[in-house]
Amino acid sequence: MHLLVTRHGETALNKQKKFYGSLDCPVDALGESQAAQLAEKLTNVPIDVTLRSDMLRTAQTAAPIIATHPTTEVRVDARLNEMGFGKWEGLNADEIQAAYPQDWQTWLDHPFEAFPTGAESYPVFKTRVWRHLMTIKSSLIVI
Length: 143
Known about the structure:
Elements: H1 12-15, H2 29-41, E1 49-52, H3 56-68, E2 73-76, H4 93-99, H5 101-109, H6 122-140
Parallel strand pairs: 1-2
Helix pairs in contact: 2-3, 4-5
């Protein structure tokens, strides 16, 4: 079994350098092009199962790949969603630093231990995604 992992295509919030883990934003024109290019590169690669989060940007990125692999099983699950950034959602680094200077510095100093109010902590995020991936792995093994 091989696991291919990809990130969603570019969004407008990427270009604006905003934090948007749990904001459900679409890919932009470049993101659509990136998804199409990826699908083209994977045309001759067998894909039995396509896994994605339940976010719009992942649906849009996966769509061209699924279109070129019509027999792939598609699994959509929120446990694969990006980590939310709480009160930082929709803000860029300068905006966060201005509004929450102490929280920002603490996060810069300890990015895996500190997190903004209302955010999912990194350890919780990591555990959520890892557990789900291990569940998926065990369900794909054929004996």
